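Example for tutorial group B:
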């Protein structure tokens, strides 16, 4: 308190004396037992902390009057404002003491609304998937149900997080702390001009409401996985019943899951054949003599008459090999066999296939073949 002459006490400087007394009555206590927000490591949902901010103004003799207005509101999505406290008030001269006023009422924080919307989306998607899975049966239904159960577990975990955020997410609103100061008359007979000030420390109490990102990502991933699986199972028709023991489909037909139906005609490349689902190399089958492989079984080989000097190789007539057989045998087209003993009429002989006229034993010209000799002799007669 400034020193004032006794005769002027309470008269000339009454304003200053009253102002100092008012300031002493306006002080508040700092937040008890709360940590500073920047000292927290990993806060739990609902925990509180505070931040301190100095506010105020000071004017010197000869200055103009000045005021201050400081706005306090929640600026971090994971925190809400709980209260604004004013402490350490220092005033002097002509001033307006620091005063708190509400600019707008509080309500649910943005993260509460966002997380609630996300939870409703997860619940809606899960309900849709349960409806789609109802058309499945057997192993497909079991697989779909496992995916939905995994989604339900993550949904419940996320719902617990959202409930905690909602209970802690009530914001106190938007506040303003303001005051002013201006030079004032002072000294003997108020002949001097003195400075003034109005200042204080503002404690902003905040509450941690959490972050739903991790829990939401897990629930959303489970929902995407369940939807992908169920869509795949619905798009894949279930296998039909397997034919019972002893059920054989006729040739040219195949089992479609419930009945025998005509097998599709598939043209496979040379050297391959259709096995019912794909072209595969044709197996090499040795069939008995006189038969050939038709692609599925050995069947009698067709009888083909080939020109003289050729023989059937199973697919075409080709030149017959010249075979030298031992004496007394002859080639029958596939092997050497004993020459049949046939008695031919006089004047004829066996040529291996039938009786033909025997050539003359004499009268042939040198180098003349037996047949030419025979014909010339006959013509001469």
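The residue assignment follows.
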């Amino acid at each position: 308190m400034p020193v004032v002459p006794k005769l002027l006490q309470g008269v000339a400087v009454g304003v200053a004396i009253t102002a100092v007394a008012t300031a002493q009555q306006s002080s508040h206590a700092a937040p008890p037992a709360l940590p500073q927000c920047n000292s927290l490591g990993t806060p739990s949902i609902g925990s509180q902390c505070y931040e301190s901010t100095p506010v105020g103004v000071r004017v010197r003799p000869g200055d103009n009057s000045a005021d201050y207005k400081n706005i306090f509101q929640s600026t971090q999505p994971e925190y809400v404002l709980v209260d604004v406290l004013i402490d350490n008030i220092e005033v002097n001269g002509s001033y307006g003491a620091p005063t708190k006023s509400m600019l707008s009422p509080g309500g649910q924080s943005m993260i509460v609304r966002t997380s609630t919307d996300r939870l409703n989306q997860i619940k809606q998607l899960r309900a849709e998937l349960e409806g789609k899975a109802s058309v499945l049966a057997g192993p497909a239904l079991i697989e779909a149900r496992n995916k939905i159960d995994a989604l339900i577990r993550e949904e419940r975990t996320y719902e617990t997080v959202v409930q905690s955020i909602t209970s802690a997410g009530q914001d106190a609103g938007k506040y303003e702390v303001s005051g002013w100061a201006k030079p004032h008359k002072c000294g003997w007979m108020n002949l001097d001009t003195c400075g003034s000030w109005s200042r204080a420390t503002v404690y902003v109490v905040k509450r941690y409401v959490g972050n739903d990102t991790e829990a939401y990502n897990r629930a959303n991933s489970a929902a995407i996985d369940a939807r992908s699986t169920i869509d795949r199972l619905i798009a894949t028709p279930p296998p039909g019943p397997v034919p019972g023991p002893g059920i054989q489909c006729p040739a040219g037909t195949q089992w479609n899951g419930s009945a025998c139906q005509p097998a599709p005609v598939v043209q496979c490349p040379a050297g391959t054949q259709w096995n019912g689902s794909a072209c595969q190399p044709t197996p090499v089958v040795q069939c008995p003599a006189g038969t050939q492989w038709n692609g599925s079984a050995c069947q009698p080989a067709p009888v083909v008459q080939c020109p003289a000097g050729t023989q059937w190789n199973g697919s075409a007539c080709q030149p017959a090999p010249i075979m030298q057989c031992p004496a007394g045998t002859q080639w029958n087209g596939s092997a050497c066999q004993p020459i049949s003993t046939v008695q031919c009429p006089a004047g004829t002989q066996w040529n291996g296939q039938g009786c033909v006229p025997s050539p003359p034993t004499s009268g042939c010209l040198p180098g003349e073949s037996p047949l030419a000799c025979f014909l010339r002799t006959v013509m001469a007669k």
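Confidence is low (pLDDT under 50) at residues 1-27. Compare this with the pattern of hydrophobic and polar residues in the output above.
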